[in-house]
Design goal:
single chain, alpha/beta, Rossmann fold, binds adenosine-5'-diphosphate, binds zinc ion
Length: 213
């Protein structure tokens, strides 16, 4: 099963993608996580991506597409995957489709986690992330067992550089301009499914599971 997660920054794509990946035993692939791991390790890719991410802009398509296609070509992706944060532009979606078509393959579902802009800024200010294992928490809604420490790997939790209010507002604008057109794109392909992302994460997951099963 090949799944794409759509939705505004902070809609809960990553939270849901991790649960989907676990339930269906497929890899969770987040281009944001890949970039952040590269920034943490100070690789040339990380240095390049950081310039855009810190301003809330998208990393250029050419670079992002290459990273993603390399990742989905790996062995563990044979039985499917859940993409979180890719595609984010129409050209990215088109390249992915072209590559899959060559393999006689296709995306099965594009799941739009729908959360209005008003809720987003509040959510992002409470987000805490583990840069070691990619786990995400929320100081009010989804707190770790021990404050500031990742439940899964024991690393320190941080607020992402791009989760400051000003950058979040830029990211929302970029989302509406460049990513939201994908809703139409996947609607036309008859694979778009929309779920209400404002309810409790368990209820969002139940709605997604009902679609996938
Ligand atoms: P969020 O979880 O808030 O949606 P992500 O972790 O997916 O954020 O992405 C963080 C940043 O990484 C984006 O603001 C963008 O700069 C960059 N990025 C991630 N995925 C892509 C992509 N598919 N195309 C371009 N830039 C991307
Ligand atoms: P995205 O990957 O779309 O940027 P995340 O999954 O990182 O979003 O979620 C953004 C923030 O909102 C995180 O702090 C996360 O813990 C929290 N969150 C996720 N789902 C919900 C939910 N259903 N209700 C409340 N908070 C949530
Ligand atoms: Zn962790």
């Amino acid at each position: 099963m090949k799944i794409i997660m759509l939705g505004a920054p902070g809609a809960g794509k990553g939270t849901q993608a991790k649960m989907i990946a676990e339930k269906f035993a497929i890899p969770h692939i987040s281009t944001g996580d890949i970039f952040r791991a590269n920034i943490k390790n100070n690789t040339p890719l990380g240095q390049e991506a950081k310039k855009y991410m810190d301003e809330g802009k998208l990393v250029p398509d050419e670079l992002t597409v290459k990273i993603l296609l390399d990742r989905v070509a790996q062995d563990d992706c044979k039985n499917g995957y859940v993409l979180d944060g890719f595609p984010r532009t129409i050209p990215q979606a088109e390249v992915l489709d072209q590559e899959l078509t060559k393999l006689n393959d296709q995306i099965d579902y594009a799941i739009d986690v729908d959360v209005p802009d008003e809720n987003i800024v509040k959510r992002m200010s409470g987000r805490r992330a583990c840069l070691t294992c990619g786990a995400t928490y929320h100081i009010e809604h989804i707190p770790p067992k021990q404050e500031g420490i990742c439940d899964k790997c024991g690393s320190e939790l941080v607020q992402r550089d791009d989760d400051k209010e000003e950058t979040v507002l830029n990211r929302l604008k970029v989302y509406h301009d460049q990513t939201q057109p994908l809703i139409d794109y996947y609607t036309k392909k008859n694979i778009l499914k929309t779920v209400d992302g404002t309810v409790d994460m368990k209820d969002v997951f139940a709605a997604i599971t009902a679609i996938l099963e």
